[in-house]
Design brief:
- It is a single chain.
- The termini are close together.
- The chain folds into 2 domains: 187 residues, Glycogen Phosphorylase B (Rossmann fold, 3-Layer(aba) Sandwich), CATH 3.40.50.2000; 160 residues, 3-Layer(aba) Sandwich (Rossmann fold).
- It is of the alpha/beta class.
- The strands form 2 sheets. Strands 3-2-1-4-5-6-7 form a 7-stranded parallel sheet, with helices on both faces. Strands 10-9-8-11-12-13 form a 6-stranded parallel sheet, sandwiched between helices.
- It is 34% helix and 15% strand.
- Helix 1 packs across helix 13, helix 6 packs across helix 11 and helix 9 packs across helix 12.
- The protein is built from 13 helices and 13 strands.
- It is globular, with a radius of gyration of 20 Å.
- Bound molecules: 7,8-dihydrobiopterin (HBI).
- The site of 7,8-dihydrobiopterin has 16 residues, from helix 1.
- This is UDP-glucose--tetrahydrobiopterin glucosyltransferase.
- InterPro entries: Glyco_trans_1, Glycosyltransferase_grp1.
- It comes from Brunnivagina elsteri CCALA 953.
- Keywords: Transferase.
- GO terms for molecular function: glycosyltransferase activity.
């Protein structure tokens, strides 16, 4: 089958970040890591990338156009039938006003926000907008506008995983799943872990940290907790509910520091109460050779090779988690690292994004790969 091997000419890409926090604050969760890695890989592949994000972004690896304004409230704190809300002087509105002004300088605008406005604005822009949907279905209003855009602008909607995509009603296949990828050179393999477990992520109710804390209590294995405290009250509740749990909160760490802790753990626990769209935490753990034990919900259940690179357990079952912890010696940690190299390299991610942009721009000249 003849394949078009010529790489696409360099694209001019405008990335519009999530409006829930500045890049580097941790408030943007997995999207921060995704945006960072995709930008780095697109630059490596010869494209140009300009990032637009709320003021207070902390990255210095990329020039970021920082936009002032009030942050958007996080979608997971709202009810499904809530009307769309926008704060006064909305940073979301201000970022997209900036995008409107400069759009003609770019080939594709990539939207990383899980918010109604960018989807609604799609037909008003002359430049193509590519939407990376970062969570499962949470809101009827967002479901509807995503459906409308998917109908009017084929190829412009993408998800991380099938189990995330199926949560959105009425979407017409083929849906595009980009999975994720990380810079594997930033994660160092460790074959001899300490007697400790790790839990990483935004500390927020939908991530159910309390279940991991219960595992630490039941197994008496110390639990290292890393990530941004997004919901202070929720964190304080956990601390008061489990005063003697063998847990240690290490803060929201850089990738380098985070992986230096994770790599020495027997496993990473993932306890999502919701359909986790992907779970970058899972591939970061695998890249360090660390098995992942997760509830069977969303992305992690598609990432983990059950019994080989970790365990997928019954949702909300703390017993299932502790049973899996007792079986960790059956996992070969090299298999975990190998899976990260096989499935989650930045190169593979970059190719999927290039294919996506070519499809949107109608330059899908590469004959369909077998
Ligand atoms: N909520 N309204 C809104 N917009 C976002 O972009 C958003 C969010 N909640 C969480 C979030 N993004 C990120 O943590 C994603 O990584 C999930």
């Amino acid at each position: 089958m003849q394949n078009n091997l010529s790489s696409p000419q360099a694209l001019k890409l405008l990335f519009i970040s999530t409006p829930v926090g500045g890049l580097g604050t941790g408030l943007g969760g997995g999207v921060e890591l995704s945006l960072y890695n995709i930008a780095k890989e697109m630059l490596r592949r010869g494209h140009t990338v300009q990032i637009v994000a709320p003021s207070g972004s902390l990255w210095d690896e990329f020039p970021i156009i920082e936009i002032p304004g009030n942050l958007q409230i996080i979608a997971q704190s709202q009810e499904r039938k809530d009307p769309i809300s926008m704060p006064v002087n909305s940073v979301l509105g201000n970022m997209w006003e900036y995008a409107r002004q400069v759009q003609s300088e770019y080939d594709v605008i990539v939207n990383f926000a899980y918010d109604w406005l960018p989807f609604y604005l799609t037909p008003f822009f002359q430049t193509a907008i590519a939407h990376l949907v970062s969570m499962g279905s949470l809101s009827d209003a967002l479901d509807q506008i995503i459906y409308q855009v998917s109908q009017a602008f084929p190829h412009t909607i993408s998800f991380y995983t099938p189990s995330q995509g199926v949560t959105f009603p009425n979407l017409v296949p083929p849906l595009r799943y980009l999975s994720s990828g990380i810079d594997l050179s930033q994660y160092e393999f460790c074959g001899k872990p300490k007697n400790q477990l790790a839990w990483l992520g935004r500390i927020s109710p939908e991530k159910a940290l309390e279940d991991a804390v219960e595992v630490a209590v039941k197994t008496n294995i110390p639990l290292k907790i890393m990530g941004k405290i997004q919901d202070e009250e929720y964190w304080q509740q956990i601390c008061s509910d489990y005063p003697n749990a063998p847990i240690e909160y290490l803060g929201f760490l850089s990738t380098e520091k985070m992986q230096s802790v994770v790599r020495e753990c027997k496993a990473v626990l993932m306890t999502p109460r919701w359909v986790e769209a992907f779970g970058n935490v899972a591939i970061e753990a695998l890249a360090c050779g660390v098995p992942v034990i997760s509830y069977s919900r969303g992305g992690p259940s598609e990432i983990i090779q059950d019994g080989i690179t970790g365990f997928v357990v019954e949702p909300d079952s703390v017993t299932g988690l502790t049973d899996a912890v007792s079986k960790l010696d059956t996992i070969n940690r090299q298999d975990c690292r190998q899976q990260a190299e096989n499935d989650f390299s930045l190169e593979a991610l970059g190719l999927r994004f290039e294919d996506w942009f070519k499809a949107i721009l109608g330059r899908d000249d590469s004959v369909s790969r077998l």
